[in-house]
Each structure stands twice: as C-alpha cells, then as structure tokens.
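Look over what follows to help learners.
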Amino acid sequence: MHFMSPAKMAAVAAAEPTIPTAAVVLAAGEGTRMKSKLPKVMHAVAGRPLVQHALTTLSAEGLSPLVVVVGPGMEQVAAAVAPHKTVVQNDRKGTGHAVLQAKDVLNGFEGDVLIAFGDTPFVTAATVAKMRAARQLPNAPKVIVLGFTPPHPGDYGRLIVGADGLERIVEAKDATPEERAVRLCNSGIMLVDGKILWPLLADVGAHNAKGEYYLTDVVGLARKAGYTCGVVEGETDELMGINSRADLAKAEAVAQEQLRRAAMDNGVTLQAPETVFFSADTKLGRDVQIGPFVVFGPGVTVDDGAVIKGFCHIEGAHISSGAVIGPHARLRPGAEIGPDAHVGNFVEIKNATLEAGAKVNHLSYVGDARVGAKANVGAGTITANYDGFNKSHTDIGVGASIGSNTVLVAPVKIGDGAMTGAGAVVTKDVPANGLAINSARQENKTDFAAKYRELKRATKTKPPR
C-alpha cells in the first residue's frame, strides 16, 4: 500500500480479516465489442463463464452475501450465478448506478462491501484477502482501491497517492502531463466501509459527457467528507478485463499457462504442455501422465497414476488410478473408468462404468452401460442404447468377452463370463458363461474365387479409346 510504512505493510500482510464482507459483482454490460448474442460475462475461459470465475474466488475467500448486477433480459446470467442473488440494472447509467441497485438486497448488512467485475476473472483470493486485511488496522482507510502497474498505462485511470493516502482517481483523458506520467492505475475494484458506501453513492453526480454515475467519484467524495482512502496493488495479469474476442483469447492463454504450471507443480507429467488444455475445475492426482493434444472439458477428475495418451477429449468423467486412456479416445459426461481399466483408440464412452481391469480397446461405442471387471469388449462393438424415443441400459458382466463387431441392443444383459460371437446382434439376455451367436454357418466353395475372376475377365467391357 503506497501510503504505508514498511511496518504497517507487514501488519497488513499478517492481519486476519474479521470484518464481514459482502460483494457486489457488476455483470450488466452488454459487451458490444464481443459481437455476440451471449452476454459478455457468459463467455468462458478454461471451461467456466467469466462471472463464475469471479464468484468462485469471492466465495472461497468467505465473502457473503454475493450480489450480481445484471442487465434486463439476462436470465441466462441469473441462472448461471444461482444461488447467489441478482438485481437488474434496467437503465445502464454507469458503474455507480449499477452498485446502487444492490442497496435493497444488502439492507441491514453490517460490514464492508467489495465491488468487483464479472468480466475480470483472474483476481486472486490472496489479493482479495490483502484488501480486506487493509481494512482491519486501526484508523484503516474507509475506501480501498485495487491498483496495478501495467507496462504501458495508456488509457487507464491514474491513482494519485499523497502522504496521507489515495487522493483522487484521474481519468487518462483528463490527466495533466504529470498525472499521466503516474504508472499506478485503477482496476475499478474497490472495498468500501458499508456504513458510508450508500450515502457516498447517493451523492455521485452525472455531470460528465456520458451523463453516467461513476463509481470512481466515491474516492473524491470520501476525501471531501474527511475519510481517508488507500491503495492495495495487484498483479497486472490478474486484473485483465475481457472486452473483445481478442481479450478472451489472451485470457484463455493466461489461464491455460497457469493451469499447466499448477498441474506440473503438483506432480503431473505433461509431455507437450503447450498442447494440453484444462478446465478450471480439472482435478489431477500425482503421477498422472498426459500425452500431447489432450483436451479436458468441465467436470473431470483423474486419480493417481492414470495414463492419458495423446489426442483424447475428456469431459464430465472420472478416471481411476492406473487406468489407461487413448490415444484418440473420447470420454463424455458420466464416464466412470475404474482402476486399471483400458479405453483405447477411437473409443467413445458416455454415461457408462468400466469396472476394474475392463478393456474397451478399439473402435467402439459404449453408452448407458456397465462393463464388469476384467470384461473385454472387442473392436467395433456398439451398445445400441437409443431407439429414437428412450435411452436403455446395457449390462456386461464380470469377465465377459464381447466379440468384434457385436451390436448390443439395449436393454440387454450379458451374464458373468458370457461370450458373444463376432458380428453378433444381441437382442436378448445372455446367461452367465453362455455364448450368443446369430450368424449363418460358414460354407466354403472350392475354387469359387478363381472361377469368379475368370468370368469377370471374360465379360469385361473394354474402355473406349
């Protein structure tokens, strides 16, 4: 904090937040530069909507209640942030006006209020904790602004700090040459003593070119009322805002680099890290090995020692210890891969359980099914689980052997130790240790192939010249 002595800064770092803190997350922006029907905060980074990144961090830091300000017609955002409360900013009259929409919801709340943004996904819990800690000290500032020092300050508002703290926020277009030379910039995020927040916002005017009520005016009004204001500085990368598709791509790159580094730091081997893509909620055990060009969608857990070979796509799945997946496998939501099970090349698993040691190694689709322990599913097998109206279940017993190109027409049960012949179409249950076949008996015709070729050569029409 720029106005504190080293001793006070150390005290801030050691302070444990004790003041209850609520949060107002601004998410009403239309995001016109995204050129999308999807609200800006619903665009995803690392498989998670931007606004959910912010809420996840704030919830982890213990902020409550969390109130999200949305625009009219943003029911999709409201659904995505549930069970957190939402309020609607029907007229978009600036950030100060947006925060005011949460006043009634927070009526009776006694504590601090953090104002954050739904399109700034990388603010860390540590930074939020540092802001809260700055409010714990004796004679703490009533307003804490989160600043940062980018390499090129450009059009960011400048934070002007004096001997007794933050004096004012100056927009770049209004700054003097001396003020533009200041590199400490405004992120827009601030923490305010709830006792003074609403009176200050009520005094914010709209005397500007846009006729909007700016949250940044709170600092000047607080100073005018005799309150001190302060600054906590965050890292530039964590304060990246998303306003365009190009920003979204940059944010994805930042998120993936962080997730890859965290995975390797926690004992995961990435053969070609730059080609592996994670979701924010991907959970990986130790000694997991991941080959090149693997994509993790949301909801994936991989236990210790599993091997995922290259070119796999995995979403909504659990992979147990010692399992081997791929290459070129697809695990869809509901896939439960047991210990030491194998899922091989060009195999798709959906809403199905492979028990310990089961193998589905080649060119197969297993959906809405259970494959028992140590069962083997031959190449080209499919579970025909959908009849055009309903999904039905296939049960493959322990130690069963399914022949190549078998079609299992659900609902059907293959008993423990049972077998199916190659090419079988199985429409009724097979008893334990039984064999299901339904193809005609093979018949060999002596010299047929040679006679067939001779006949074709004799009747072949010569092509025109």
Notes: The chain has two domains: 6-239, 268-436. The longest strand covers residues 185-193. The two ends are 90 Å apart (CA to CA).
